[in-house]
Amino acid sequence: METVTTMRFDDPQLITFLSGADAAELDQLEFGVIGFDAETLVCVYNAYESRCAALAPSRVLAQPLFTMVAPCMNNFMVAHRFEETQASGESLDEIIDYVLTLRMRPAKVKLRLLARPNVTLRYVLVQRAI
Amino acid sequence: MTALTVNLESEFEALVQFLYLAPVGLAQVDRDGEILMINPLSAQLLMPLARDANLTNLFVVLESVLPDLRHMATDFAMPHGKVCDGVRIQLNAGGRSKRDPQVLSLTLLKLDADRMMAVLNDISEQVKREAQLRHNEMWFDAILTGVSDYALVCLDHQGRVVEWNSGIGRVTGFERDAVVGQPFSVFYPGGSITPDRVSDRLREADDSGWSLDDGWRARADGSRFWGSGMLAILPERLTGFPASGGAALDENSIYCLIIRDITEKRDASERQRKLTSCDHLTGVANRRVFFEVTDLEIERWKRSPRLLSMIVIDADLFKTINDQYGHAAGDVVLRDLAEVMMQVFRPIDTVARIGGEEFAILLPSTSLVQAHAAAERLRAAVEARRVEVEGIRIAYTISGGVASMEDATGGLDAWMKRADRALYAAKAAGRNRIEASGPLYACVMTA
Q1: How many domains does chain B have?
Q2: Beta strands B255-261 and B224-233: pairing type?
Q3: Under DSSP, is residue A104 helix (H, G, I), strand (E, B) or coil?
Q4: Residues of A in contact with B94 (CB under 8 A)
Q5: In a domain? residue B141
Q6: Could you report the per-residue pLDDT of A105-114, keeping only the tens digit for each?
Q7: A59, B1, B357, B407 — which has fewest CB within 10 A?
Q8: Nearest-10 Cα torsion for B183, B187, B191, B195
Q9: Calpha distance B235→B106 (Å, rounded)
């Protein structure tokens, strides 16, 4: 449990933690976690993200991320980066400044895009800008 | 109370998701353009324009592509109403291919003194379609209006003229009854096209969308003009369904033939064509052209086998003529031979000089027997002639070998070898003869 509370948004080993964590551990995190599979279907949607977006996980899980959940990420900055990584079989770990429309309010956030060839899920992490 | 709260929460969630997923960009802004609410599609459309991911003010975000927007909003005097309606914004920036410019449409609706609602749409595809449509309209304008030297002919799936129009009358002089129901070969001088070639043109249009063909065309009064012809398949069938590519003899296929009288331009283009395609000495086609044309005919034969023959001709004892009368006399003999060949063979046949004193003729839609007969006519005509060089009348003869296309395996080489073997047989049998390869003469060949 202590590991969970100390795990930071920009921790270099974050993807290793995320791929091994259970739902309760992910819900403890102080940033949003959206995990999705090779077909872009959402498999992980933690409590923090659910609160920010005002959406229950049941409305989001098993939905295609870039078309049915977060169409605002369906562009060259996010979706396209994951596609490129998937095509080249390389790793992706980038933090970008972004604007999300959480509850229709433009919100400045930092997005961390994570993907690794031997890890099943890919992740978009959302941290509200300070 | 609890039930009501749960219900409200659930409805709020559904409403939020409705806006998250709306396939149109929506944003509410204040009088200065500050974004109060924005849905994800708006953010997706605007993000590429936002500097440093700053999506706080609509006027600022759109400043580089729509600088007037702020003024339009401030100058809008009415208490409410449309500030702008479907204004098109061409984006230069963005992650898309530079070849397909992204275009947004923006409608700005003033709600009251403090609030405006923006509606954003990506209309790139629509704009692309409109551009294509304008392009098509330009084509048709160019073809149909204000021109005097075009005939636009509508053809059915067998290349028959469907209807007459004044353009056909103007360019070709044909009346309605003379052309409707006739294949488009009616516009060609005799001997310059065959029914097979009519089908070939249609199939080429099926395969590649169009087929071009420049050459002599005939008017109703028998006179000729140099025409440029473009045959195109119309993309829609009569039934309105898109035509499937390459469907041979689809009864719903409709073709459009555009005939242009370019007689005036012909001199220049003919000169160029002669330079690159003709043998300098004799004026007949050169070796390169012969192989090109023959390869094309073999491709057509593969697609739909039909009668196709080749003749190879060799001037007999040509070395002796050169030795006895000089090379200039030899040249005169070759020019004379070419002249007789052009008289004997049809315009659709390709007569070419493929070696020193060796010629080849490709005869589309021609059987072995017919080709043999044509070669025999040539042989007899040559035998009866005399060429005069510096007062001396020279007689010469030719030998020929004929072969028909029977089997595409081995291509041009194998076919030509059969014609060559027949030619050698003619030479071996004493010259001034035509021999043929093939079933009719099989006993001779195998003897």
Answers
A1: 3
A2: antiparallel
A3: coil
A4: 76
A5: no
A6: 888 899 999 9
A7: B1
A8: -20
A9: 34
Q: List all residues 6 or more positions away from B373 whose beta carbon is below 8 Å from its beta carbon.
A: none
> Is residue B181 in a domain?
yes
pLDDT tens-digit series, residues B384-397: 999 998 889 999 99
Residue whose structure tokens are 């974004």: B35
The first and second tokens of residue A33, run together, are 């976690």
For B375-442, the DSSP string reads HHHHHHHHHH--EEETTEEE---EEEEEEE----TTHHHHHHHHHHHHHHHHHHTTSS-EEE-SGGGH
Could you tell me if B15 and B121 lie in one domain?
Answer: yes
Where do we find the tokens 């296929």?
Answer: B253
Ordered by start, the domain boundaries in chain A are: 12-120
Please name the residues between 57 and 116 in chain A that touch chain B, using a CB distance below 8 Å: 59, 68-77, 80, 96-101, 103-106, 108
Closest CA to B90 of B74, B99, B101: B101
Find the chain B residues whose C-beta atoms sit closer than 8 A to any C-beta of A.
Answer: 12-13, 16-17, 19-21, 35, 37-44, 47-48, 50, 52-56, 94-96
The CATH number of domain A12-120 is 3.30.450.20: yes
Closest Cβ opposite residue B43 in set A53, A69, A72: A72
What's the confidence (pLDDT) of residue B364? 95
pLDDT digits (tens, 9 = 90+) for B301-351: 988 899 999 999 999 999 999 999 988 899 999 999 999 999 999 999 999
Cβ-in-10-Å burial (0-12, 13-18, 19+) of B313 comes to buried
Ramachandran bin of B181, using left for φ above 0, alpha for ψ from -120 to 50, beta for the remaining angles: left
Judge whether residue A56 has pLDDT over 60. Answer: yes
Backbone angles phi, psi at B310, to 5 degrees: -135, 140
Query: Is there a domain that residue B270 lies in?
Result: no
Task: Give the type of residue at B12.
Answer: F
Q: What type of residue is A130?
A: I
Enumerate residues 6+ apart whose C-beta is below 8 A from B26: B19, B37, B38, B39, B41, B42, B117, B118, B119, B120
Helices (H) and strands (E) in chain A, counts: 6, 5
Q: Is the residue at B132 inside a domain?
A: no
| Domain coverage including residue B183 | 147-264
Asked whether the ipTM of the predicted complex exceeds the cut of 0.90, the reply is no
- Which pLDDT value is given to residue B284? 93
Tell me what pLDDT residue B175 has.
93
pTM: 0.47
